[in-house]
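During the reporting period the student researcher (J.K.) took over the structure-prediction task from the postdoctoral fellow and processed the backlog of single-chain submissions. One of the processed entries is reproduced below for the supervisory committee.
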Amino acid sequence: MKKPNGYDQVPAKTISGFSNPTAGTYVLGIIKANIEMSKKGNEMLVLELDIIEGEFQKHYRNLSERLGKNCLLKHYRVTDSEKSMPYFKGDIKAIEESNPGFKFDFDESKLRGKKVGGMLAEEEYETMQGEVKTALKLAFLCSVDTAKSGKLKPPTPKKIYPDSGFGFDDNKSNDDDLPF
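J.K. obtained the following structure tokens:
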């Protein structure tokens, strides 16, 4: 490997001393709201959010600054299909209940700066090297009161490869149970 030009002059940066939120409910702030088209050509509300209360306040904005890319939580909701419309209405209801006096008038730009509750859940993903890792994703929106109530429990982590039901554990050999 050839030493990069300017290597000696650049200060070293590491990502350490950095704790991450865990699965659970949080009070979120809407940073950005846009209308986009889904892959199937449906109108879709796209919200970008960050945690705005507690130990992890501004976590995703700070992460974005550290990594130099957008790491905000994203929430996608198709707005104009019969199947998704009740969920869209539920999202809007959660935002309205979380912001007393606010009534959504279908101008998505007015969602910016509003509060809403949200559930962060663990989800597995596979790296380019084939390694399975876990990330937190925004599972759903709820009112701030519901998020703070402590009544919601994080869902079971979403697995890439669900348990086959055969009882095999990758960490143990079950060869003794095989008939050959």
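The committee noted the following: Residues 167-175 have pLDDT under 50 and may be disordered.
J.K. will present the remaining backlog at the next meeting.
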